[in-house]
Design goal:
48% strand; globular; disordered N terminus
Length: 390
């Protein structure tokens, strides 16, 4: 009798676990459907949603990805996958992977920092956390330069920072279909402009990856899948408002800012060329925005598509050379003639046991708009620490 009860209880638990898995997979499908619905209805809010909201989240992280013109959605894995495609966290092979990057743009005026953690829960799932800071520091505040009596006092000049922060918490799991992975992340956004203004925002990202046969990988990343909002609050004193009015500037008011969904589709082919670990890989990604016409290669309404491609050559599992091409745009010159411009990137990477160093020579504009930047990033691959005290 006790054996039958135990067997019944065991079957009951297995059925409950299977139901939970079904609910989990249904939730993933529902999340993607919500994203598709959001993109279809996005144009209803285009008049209130700026086209370039939260653009600091589109720059990219990791010198390995930047060297390939951000063409990594299908192949990314580990700590950087939190940003590019959270499904790749499920491929974390180490107990803990730590990633970090520092880059500077516009001759060092703007600083971009990224740190991430990815932990392999088991052979099928992983979790991750990341933080991004993009800021311009030490900006002179001259609104108090002239006092009420009209006197100029340079001691009244103060400094402030305009900083954007993004915190992401992600989870990924391998599904029952062999080679298929899903991941999702929640992100909290905080933006500040000195003591003048600040905003808080919240958004969701989701991604899928699929390994087909030997050489091919496919991926899709849905950013801001339910639309991301930022609630802005402005705290301007009377003196600042007066300066804004006298200089012809509009006095800002509290309000909401929306970031509409963006879908990125990627395909990678990776081909071995020797038995010693040498390989050649190439990936092409298509960024599809839903906020109307943009100045990209395929421009339309409501969808615009921005293609970019990256190539990676690995040698002896030690050295990697990368290059990429992206940011294809038609630019009108002084003769009103349209010319196709593009942005080439290059990079290299080396791995020493548990340390991976990557470098990229890249830009956040096209090849003629802004100065190129030297970007470095590092990854630490850590095993679970042994407990010496028993």
């Amino acid at each position: 009798m006790e054996y039958k009860e135990h067997n019944f209880f065991k079957k009951y638990v297995l059925v409950e676990v299977q139901i939970l898995h079904m609910k989990f997979h249904f939730s993933l499908i529902l999340l993607f459907l919500v994203g598709v619905y959001s993109s279809v209805t996005a144009q209803q809010t285009t008049t209130t949603a700026p086209k370039y909201s939260n653009e600091f989240l589109q720059i990219g992280v990791g010198a390995d990805a930047l060297g390939q013109s951000n063409s990594v959605v299908a192949s990314t894995e580990g700590s950087n996958a939190i940003y590019w495609n959270p499904a790749g966290i499920a491929l974390s092979k180490k107990w803990l992977e730590v990633g970090g990057m520092h880059s500077e743009y516009f001759a060092g005026i703007a600083k971009y920092d990224f740190i991430s953690l990815a932990h392999a829960i088991d052979a099928k799932s992983g979790i991750g956390f990341s933080m991004i800071r993009f800021a311009v520091d030490d900006i002179p505040n001259t609104t108090q330069l002239i006092d009420n009596g009209g006197n100029v006092n340079y001691d009244r000049i103060s400094l402030f920072s305009a900083a954007d922060y993004a915190f992401s918490l992600a989870y990924a799991r391998k599904l029952k279909v062999e080679g298929l992975r899903f991941g999702g992340s929640m992100k909290l956004i905080h933006r500040t402009v000195g003591n003048f203004a600040h905003s808080w925002g919240f958004g969701l990202d989701a991604g899928l990856q699929y390994d087909a046969k030997k050489y091919w990988k496919f991926g899709v990343m849905a950013r801001d899948i339910t639309s991301t909002f930022n609630a802005w609050v402005f705290t301007l004193d009377e003196q600042t408002k007066k300066v804004f009015s006298l200089t012809g500037n509009t006095i800002p008011t509290n309000g909401m800012e929306y970031t509409l969904p963006r879908f990125i589709f990627g395909t990678q082919g990776k081909f071995p060329v020797s038995s010693k670990g040498d390989y050649v890989a190439g990936e092409i990604d298509l960024d599809m925005t839903t906020d109307g016409r943009r100045n990209v290669l395929i421009s339309g309404a409501p969808f615009s598509i921005d293609p970019h491609v990256g190539i990676e050559v690995g040698i002896r599992k030690f050295f990697v050379f990368r290059c990429g091409l992206g940011n294809l745009q038609y630019v009108t010159d002084f003769n009103k003639k349209k010319n196709l411009t593009f942005q080439p990137n290059i990079g290299v990477g080396v791995q020493f046991e548990y340390v991976v160093l990557n470098y990229a020579f890249t830009d956040i504009g096209d090849k003629s708009t802004a100065l190129y930047s030297n970007v470095f990033s590092v990854k630490l691959l850590l095993d679970k620490p042994s407990n010496a005290v028993k």
